[in-house]
Amino acid sequence: xxxxxxxxxxxxxxxxxxxxxxxxxxxxxxxxxxxxxxxxxxxxxxxxxxxxxxxxxxxxxxxxxxxxxxxxxxxxxxxxxxxxxxxxxxxxxxxxxxxxxxxxxxxxxxxxxxxxxxxxxxxxxxxxxxxxxxxxxxxxxxxxxxxxxxxxxxxxxxxxxxxxxxxxxxxxxxxxxxxxxxxxxxxxxxxxxxxxxxxxxxxxxxxxxxxxxxxxxxxxxxxxxxxxxxxxxxxxxxxxxxxxxxxxxxxxxxxxxxxxxxxxxxxxxxxxxxxxxxxxxxxxxxxxxxxxxxxxxxxxxxxxxxxxxxxxx
Length: 313
What we know:
alpha/beta; globular; 8-stranded mixed β-sheet; Rossmann fold; 30% helix
């Protein structure tokens, strides 16, 4: 596959506004400040998104931008652990938050990042969003060598509703179709690890995030549909190792979403680590500007290093 449309910066390509935002955010800490400076020096403009289906996504309801799921690729100067992370932005399944700072944070630590633009509930409902996520995982795995990553080092990091999408991808996956004409569809769509930041998990009361449920499943989902998309009900021993970050007083997505998923992981024998901070608003991202929360990315990269998904310091 050609890199048409990509600028491989650094080799990370990004917009100057994104780099400035990251610098202000303080997302690169301590010894990584030098890596940030290298990223700033190498940055020139934003990488172009790559369509998941160049000839049109299955089930597309039009030809507008919202009908075209894509990946935006951010490659680091070096990737010693050969790890890729697909980033699923949050937004309640009705819009997508900005996560370029997260991609750059990963790049500065020698990890490739792939930002997923998936279709949304203003126009699309389940299973389209999961279909987009699965295709993205297959695509990165199919071209892992080109991106300098290992096919068994492909994780998924989701925020809020994007966390639900990541958790769903980690509990509903397949090995690919060996007979598929499209080589990408022959690949497994199982992520090798999950990172869930203040995720939506359940579609069941009393802890459901109402907007995510509505935009994902429509106005009147059946009980079977609610059960099918409550990720805590589908954890098995094959669910990938998972890192969770959440705050107790999150007023948007109740902390019990994460607690239920963590409990299910432990029960199934899946390696899991969860960090619950007492205070912090929903959507805290990398914890920029909050001395209490800004440590959580350090805990994440430590976890990734321990599992071989990031290079040692």
